């Protein structure tokens, strides 16, 4: 088809195959204030893994993570069920870093809040490589810019 | 666990939160 896709940034939408590590839900707001700096968030996830609240290695079930100006959606590989839905306006920040286990895998931490902004949840996914993690961050950043531009 | 490069994307709506 002659429809050109991709260059029109407002239609930015991308799909990535990731694995789900886990989530730490319903953190109180004062706790979320402590999780602003990237290293604090990484240490928090590390501690959760050491305490067994989060596994070190995700299940081997792959999922598809969609990033667009609507936010982040995670669906099963056959896209029959939507597993997680993070609206863009509830996404506070996204962080990606090497999981340190030496296999070049990157962890993707998504900090979301609730509409009343009283608490926050940390969602952790595993990407297959840092390149994939970087592209996810790029698309999300473009989606924030696009949402900001349309707010004006 | 040593963490190398870290990339952060912040929603402008929550800058500083």
Quick summary:
The complex is a heterodimer of chains A (152) and B (17). With 152 residues, chain A is of the alpha+beta class.
Instruction: Tell me how many strands of chain B there are.
Output: 1
Give Rg of chain B in angstroms. Answer: 11 Å
Helix percent of chain A reads 25-40%
Count of individual helical segments of chain A: 3
Mean pLDDT score of chain A, rounded?
Answer: 90
Structural class label of chain B: mainly beta
Report strand order across the widest sheet of chain A.
4-3-2-1-7-6-5
Uncertain segments of chain B are: none
Largest sheet of chain A: 7 strands, antiparallel
Give the N-terminus to C-terminus distance of chain A in angstroms: 34 Å
Reported for the largest beta sheet of chain B, the result is: none
Q: H/E order of the elements of chain B? A: E
Terminal-residue CA separation of chain B = 27 Å
Topology pattern of chain A, helix = H, strand = E: EHHEEEEEEH
In percent terms, what proportion of residues of chain A is strand?
A: 35-45%
Main structural class of chain A? alpha+beta
The most extensive interface, with participating residues per chain, is:
A-B, 30 and 16 residues
Number of helices of chain B: 0
Please give a structural write-up.
The complex is a heterodimer of chains A (152) and B (17). Helix content of chain A is 26%, strand content 39%. Chain A is built from three helices and seven strands, in the order E-H-H-E-E-E-E-E-E-H. Chain A has helices spanning 29-33, 38-50, 130-151, and strands at residues 13-28, 62-68, 71-76, 82-87, 91-98, 106-113, 119-127. Chain A is globular and about 45 Å long. Chain B has 17 residues and is mostly beta strands. Chain B has no helices and one strand. The radius of gyration of chain B is 11 Å and the shape is elongated. Strand 5 (91-98) of chain A pairs antiparallel with strand 1 of chain B, so a sheet runs across the interface.
